[in-house]
Amino acid sequence: MRKTLIGHSISSIADSSKILTYMGLIYATLGEHETAVEKFIEATGLDNYLAVTYFQGGVFNFLLARYDLAYKNFDEALLYLRGNPVSYVFLCPILF
């Protein structure tokens, strides 16, 4: 029983949009921008309101010279902010 519960917990963590976003940021830090973008796409597939993930996808699509996709990502980031201001307190995981 316990093993089943642990396995279930691990699988739900593995599919977390925030975990996938952080994985994308790690890949980006390693210079693997293509893989980073793939993780951002997976993350937004699970949570399409995660504006910061669209923004990060835009940054790395821009670096990969995919300007149309970058524009689309930035546009979606603005859309999903829903007029809310950016809380700069939560930018620490992105910047550092």
TrEMBL record:
Phylogenetic classification of the source organism: Eukaryota, Fungi, Dikarya, Basidiomycota, Agaricomycotina
Coiled-coil regions listed: none
PANTHER family, per the entry: NEUTROPHIL CYTOSOLIC FACTOR 2, NEUTROPHIL NADPH OXIDASE FACTOR 2 (PTHR15175), SH3 DOMAIN-CONTAINING PROTEIN C23A1.17 (PTHR15175:SF0)
Protein name per UniProt: Uncharacterized protein
Positions of transmembrane segments: none
Keyword Cytoplasm tagged: no
Superkingdom per UniProt: Eukaryota
Protein keywords: TPR repeat
InterPro entries: NCF2_NOXA1 (IPR051864), TPR-like_helical_dom_sf (IPR011990), TPR_rpt (IPR019734)
Spans of repeat TPR: 17-50
